[in-house]
Design a protein that fits this description.
Elements: H1 7-31, H2 37-49, H3 62-71, H4 86-91
């Protein structure tokens, strides 16, 4: 028999569903405009890491962990430093 669907489980499943749909939307929308998925993810990461997100090392050093602690959250998709992408400049 299935476990009852609790509020906590509903929140987790809802959050995962919305997060997946959100990133898929960004991949499709900007992908159709010539932006690669890697560039989209770098733009999202740049909200927390700044320009270091475009260095491609895939690591967060101590200097960036401090920024993550101070800012929390994300910086918004293709916002801030992420507007370097040609499609983002053109459409944003």
């Amino acid at each position: 028999m299935a476990r009852p669907y609790t509020v906590g489980r509903a929140l987790v499943h809802g959050t995962l569903t919305v997060g997946i749909l959100d990133i898929l939307d960004a991949f499709i929308f900007f992908g159709l405009r010539g932006v690669t998925p890697a560039r989209i993810l770098q733009s999202i990461a740049s909200g927390v890491l700044g320009r270091a997100a475009y260095q491609g090392r895939g690591e967060v050093g101590p200097q960036h962990r401090h920024r993550v602690d101070q800012q929390g959250g994300d910086g918004g998709e293709l916002g801030g430093a992420g507007t370097d992408a040609p499609a983002a400049r053109r459409h944003g």
